[in-house]
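General statements about sequence and structure are easier to judge against a single worked case. When preparing material for the folding task, we compiled for one chain both its residues and its backbone structure tokens. The amino acid sequence and the backbone structure tokens for this protein are reproduced below:
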Amino acid sequence: GVLLIGPPGTGKTLIARAVAGEAGVPFFSISGSEFVEMFVGVGASRVRDLFRQARKHAPCIIFIDEIDAVGRQRGVSLGGANDEREQTLNQLLVEMDGFDARTNIIVIAATNRPDVLDPALLRPGRFDRRIVLDPPDLQGRRAILEVHARGKPLAPDVDLLQIARQTVGFSGADLANLMNEAAILAGRAGKTTIGMAELEEAILRVMAGPERKSRVLTEYERSIVAYHEVGHALVMKALPHGLPVQKVSIVARGPALGLTVSAPLEDRYLASRAQLLARMAGELGGRVAEELIFGDVTTGAKQDIEAVTTIARRMVCEFGMSDLGMIAWGRREDGLPVVSEEMAARIDQAVKALVDEAYQMARAVLVAQRDKLVQIAEYLKVVETIDGAELDRLLAGEVPPPPAASPSA
């Protein structure tokens, strides 16, 4: 058997479809959730029926999508309500590597949760091949964009390599959605070709949702959002390990009132402690800017605080980047903690220490660059959106900002 492992949207089901088209043998497709029923014995019966049909048409391929629905590790659920699923899994194990080894059937399965699968399902003889599908790298993103650009009229100024550079972390499904969104935007604007403006707007739509021009803020709220977003951008630009800023906007998208888009210039597979601290400081730049300019804080930093807390907790509990040492602290499969109350309190203290360190980094940057913060935020209130190149010119003093207004209530 072959197990396809990867996050959503990376092409696991697509590969199975491609194999079905190229193999030239009968192809049976089923989802793992279709085996699980409220009636005892139905799931195991369906497994037997599926393999009985497959044996009649051998050689053939069976594809089981989302196999974690039925292949979850046995004996970890509380309450004993998993008997039906365990029977189904037992039947699947027998069918895949039972007493009769002469069957000419290949099983392909897909999952984005390999950590919860039963070890018996993963042993050699059942799933011999494990193929990991990661989000595409730069050249992969460019190739995927070229595939989805076929049949779509692109303007001469379109550079798909540049779009690929701006979409670090996008899955294949995200890139397909991006090209479709760009085509829709061009059609709505009455254009005959898709330009870079439509593609860059489509990137923001995939990341954060469409613009919500209907959301009208008071002038005071617009000031808060502008200073908040510029606070993010200035901290990211100032720190040596900060991510490059691609766009700063005070146009509402989805639940967000503003947006600061940042992404590495190349694909990264490792992150250092300094890089993670810089990312946390960038996230906290908005809250620090509110404190410095308005002397008060708002609820606008909710998502930033959640992101910072998540990074800090992973640094302590998974990456060994705190004073507590190189020990992994996590939770069992049933959700219960594996640490004592005393150690949990020490972990919380270590998390807070990292967050405080990042906060002080952000504060030091914005105190030193307070004049730039005011100038660029007031400029952003007028133009609403600044790209990375324009931000660089503003920091260099090349773009004359509009007269600074006093940010008062």
Observations:
- Confidence is low (pLDDT under 50) at residues 403-409.
